[in-house]
Amino acid sequence: MLKALGNVFKVKELRKKVLFVLAMMVVYRLGAHIPVPGVDAEVIQQQLFAGSSGGVFEFLDLFAGGALRNFTIFAMSITPYITASIILNLLTVVIPKLEELSKQGREGKKKIAQYTRYGAVVLAVIQSFGITSFIRSFGAVENESLFNIILIVVSLTAGTSFLIWLGEQINEKGIGNGISIIIFTSIISRFPGDIYNTYKLFQAGSVSVFNILLFIVLAVAIIAGVIFVQEGERRIPVQYSKRVVGRKVYGGRSTHIPMKVNQAGVIPVIFASSVLLFPGVIAKVIPYQWAQSVANAIQPGSTLYMVLYALMILFFTYFYTAITFNPEEVAENMKKYGGFIPGIRPGKSTINYLDKILVRVTLAGALFLTAVALLPFAIKPLTGVNISFGGTSLLIMTGVALQTMQQIESHLLMRHYEGFMD
Question: Pairing relation of β-strands 339-340 and 233-240?
Fold first, then answer.
């Protein structure tokens, strides 16, 4: 492992990429401490995070890395961008023009990414105005002049826009997974505070050694499980028939189609969390009793929240897998180059076979993601450990770390160095 880590810094190009990503993570954490002007953060902490009343805002603050609690310029994190991505992915299925763009390769994806950015900025303006109106209702805005309100909205929108740009820079000049790395940084930045809070609970007698050991065992099991499922794949054998072109013979070899158990990675968990948090925040803002009842019913930890969370993860796992793996396209490419699955006729039969395997394999991955994401809600009464230490955060952290290691691994193998996973 140490040798592989040393190899990372031997390759000049890879070293620059890794150092660039680390520098961007530092920039993000520095920006997360710049306060929004004209807002009293102490009032926000008392009103939204005092005692057990945090609920949905505690969960939002997890993705913001503490920026919402302190109401800094990154208080909204990149949730508007995630929401815009979900909307664009859904629209790609129903709008033919967007579907055509998605099939145009790199240029089409760049165009869709541009639309996503525009949508994210629009959503950021709307969300920042809603948050400003909400904190104004309980006196967190120090000066309620029009100029100050606009300044708060612009500061929050600019913070989110900067994070979107930061994520794209990591994609272009770093090692990819820009948005995921920002979320990873947000979650890991909470760990020192959570460890300290757990230590205080231990001193007060609220958490025992058994509780802490139980959490450690579960955390290790979750990490091992995520790695096992993420690396798991169903290999479908493919045989290519021989073709004679001129004096050369092509084909006649055996290979396989690697169909991952968890094709979507941690994206379904991030999408499901973002979608479920949105109505909870809106309900909190509406000053009516029925709205507060809705907010309490769907706050993290409630029965309705867990049911909806599980259904959302299942939906987004299948949805994202359907976008990234197209059985028709795979079957067409196989037929084009003279390939076939032994025992399966080319064409429609191959498409049906691949689709059937995909549904079954994806179900296993979706059920695993759902179980891990819901695990902390089931064991919290036993462990007493803070929820930000739960399955969702560990799932995202492990998934992002694994994807990043795979990116580095591919760079090392291209240059004939031994990778992390050998």
Answer: antiparallel
